[in-house]
Amino acid sequence: TYRAEVMAGTVALMAAYCVVIYSDNQSFVDKANVHIRARDDLCQPPTRNLHRHHDLWTTFDAVLWGHRPHTVQIIKVESHRELQSRKNAFDMYTAYGNDFADRAAKAALFQRPDITRLLSSAKKHKDACIRQADDLAGFLAESAIRFKNAKSECP
Tens of pLDDT along 48-85? Predict the structure, then answer.
C-alpha cells in the first residue's frame, strides 16, 4: 500500500546516510522526490494534498532533514517483472529486489497480529492505569488532608 511505501522510505532514511530507494509505487516516488527537491533547495516541504497521510510525510520530512542535500535518491522501477525477461544486470537487480519486497510485504500481512485482541489488551491496560492513577490521586488527597490536620494539631 501507499502508506507502507512511505513508511519503508522513512525507515530507509533512518538506516543509512546516503540512500538510494527503488520503488514501484509511482505516487510515492513522485511525492517523495518533491520533498527531496525541497530539502535539497533548503525550502519548506510541501503541505498541500498531504492531509490523508500527513502523519507519515511529517515523519519522512523530519528524517529527511537530517540528511545533507543530494544524499537521497528515489528511483521508480517497473513492478511485477519476470527475472528472465530482463536484459541487463541492473534490470535483473531491481526486478529481484522488487519481487523480494513484494513477497516480504505479503508475508508480513499474513503474519500480522490480531488487531482486535491487541486493542482489547491495550484498553484493559489503559483502564488499569486509570484505576491506579485514581487510587494514587485519592491517596495523595487523603494524605494532604491528614498532613494539614496533623500540622494544625501541633503546638
Answer: 555 677 888 888 888 888 888 888 999 888 776 665 66
Rounded Cα gap, residues 32 and 59, in angstroms = 12
C-alpha cell at 66: 537530517
- pTM (2 d.p.): 0.60
φ/ψ bin of 48: left (φ > 0), alpha (ψ from -120 to 50), beta (otherwise): beta
Q: Are 30 and 84 in contact (CB under 8 A)?
A: no
Pairwise CA distance, residues 127 & 144, whole Å: 26
Determine the Cα–Cα distance for residues 5 and 53; give it in Å rounded to an integer: 11
- Inter-CA distances, 55 with 7, 35, 80, Å: 10, 14, 29
